[in-house]
Structure formats: structure tokens, C-alpha cells
């Protein structure tokens, strides 16, 4: 048949429905959302659902602006950061020059380029899985950098990010900060100097609201105007009424999330040290996961062993460069102790 699109889609992690399991394969937050979120959900007036949700998400943008020290006019809200990123690709990458991003990063970047027919080139990370600044000081149609990166967990310093932004002011540089709450310095200060930077965030990781599907982007009023025009051309009501209400409440409980995300970072560092003591190769992570290469057993064997015990981690067997590694999300302390015990059984 004519006109049918063929594309290789993004493949998410497994979503098992076991009653008793340790699910650490999709980088979900180990802790429940703020108790205030549950209270707000219980108090929500279902009668309000007869109305359309907000067009401008003013309440959510207002508190995000307050929390981040920026203007509400610098924010766009979407149905998860995937929605915001897809909008950004559509809005900002429309030249014949290639958009560039790392060869090992969030898998959706390649998919969106294929879907929207955007020319692109994947730039190889170094042997140590680091992003080399010099590789991004070249002619291009736009740049996308996840910082900290996934699936490596490695963070690139703000000074190096600024150098890339500064040397590429003729294009938009997207900085995907899905994991910035777990370590590293945000690129927000660069907004005062450059109007070509667009930062994306999600409520899925640090706010423990992956099931809510809310994300946002931050940029200059010019970029926000462009991306809003694209959004309003096909899906102006992208964030539902319940999602916006609960996201606002989550933003109000900064102290709760500072505590829980700080605890995740502590468990991550402890777990990394334990794996290193076993002889594993563990990449330095500032996220809520670690990428680790087992010793004495292959990644595929360890993956199967853990899954047999209903411990779900992520194995990228189709990606040659990290086929010997497992990505392990950070659960609660007791869960990670159990994971370590299971690992030791097979070594």
C-alpha cells in the first residue's frame, strides 16, 4: 500500500507485573511520590473532569518558574519530557545540516530523527564513554546532549557544556536534564548568556511520577514561542487536569524530594563501591542508576540469573559497545542488598 511509514521504534524496558519482585530496569524512583500528592489525588473533584484542561498550564509553570528562578514565559509543559523533546526536534531542527548527539545516549533521539526525517549523525563517545567537547565544535544542524547521560550515567561539567553552547550559537543546543536532581550542576545559569539553549526536565525520575506523564522545557522566550506554536498546531491540551494538579503539589514539597533523592544518591554510591569491590567495572554515575560490567560471568548470564530471581535489570545485548554491561537502577537500601546477594551467588 502507498504512503505507509516504516520505522524502527524505541524499545522501552520490560514492565513485568509480578507481585513480588525487584524492578530496577527502567530508572523509576525508588520512593513513593510526596504524601501531599496522594492527599491531593484523594481530594480531587472528579466533577471538574467534564471541562478541558488548561491551555497554558499557568499554575504549573508559575511554581516551576519560582523553584528554578526563571520566568514562567521561559517554560513549556508537555506530556512527559518525551513529548517536550519530540516537539523540540520538530520545532528546532529543520535545516539540511545534521543534528549531532552521542552514539550511546537516550534511544529516542535517533527515533525522532527517523520519524521526522531529520538528518543526523551519532558521535562516538570515548573509550571511557565520555563526551569529547571538541567533537561538537563543528558545523551541524543542532545538538542534543543528555547530562548526566543515559545509559552511561556520566556527567559533563557545566564549563564544557557552556563551551559547546557558546561555539554553536547558530543552532539550538538541547540539554536533557532528566537526571540532574541526582548529581551535577544544571545548565540553567547559561540561559542568562545564550538564547540557543533549551533544557528539558521530567517528573518521572526525581519526582517519582513516571505514571503521571509530565515534563517541561526551559528556554528563551523566542524558543518557547516557536515550540508553543508547534504544540498548539496539533495537541494544545497535552497535560490533563489531574496531572497538572498533582505536579503542582509535587513542586510544593521540595524538602521531601531533596531528602529522598539525596538518599538515592547515597545508595548509588554505596552500591557502586560494593560492585567495585567484587571486581566489576562501574562507570561513575550521577544518576539513579549505574552501568556495570560483571566479572567472572557474562552480562547475559547475570541478567538471566537475576531475572530468574525476579530481579529485573536492563541488558542492552543489541548495543555492541555496552553488550557486556548491565544498567541497574537504584532501589531502596534493602532491595540493593538483596541484589548484591543474588549477584554474589553466581560469581
TrEMBL record:
It comes from Pseudolactococcus hodotermopsidis. It catalyses: L-histidinol phosphate + 2-oxoglutarate = 3-(imidazol-4-yl)-2-oxopropyl phosphate + L-glutamate. Pathway: Amino-acid biosynthesis; L-histidine biosynthesis; L-histidine from 5-phospho-alpha-D-ribose 1-diphosphate: step 7/9. This is Histidinol-phosphate aminotransferase. Its cofactor is pyridoxal 5'-phosphate. The gene is hisC_2. The modification N6-(pyridoxal phosphate)lysine is found at residue 205. Residues 20-341 form the Aminotransferase class I/classII large domain. Its EC number is 2.6.1.9. Keywords: Amino-acid biosynthesis, Aminotransferase, Histidine biosynthesis, Pyridoxal phosphate, Transferase. It comes from the Bacteria.
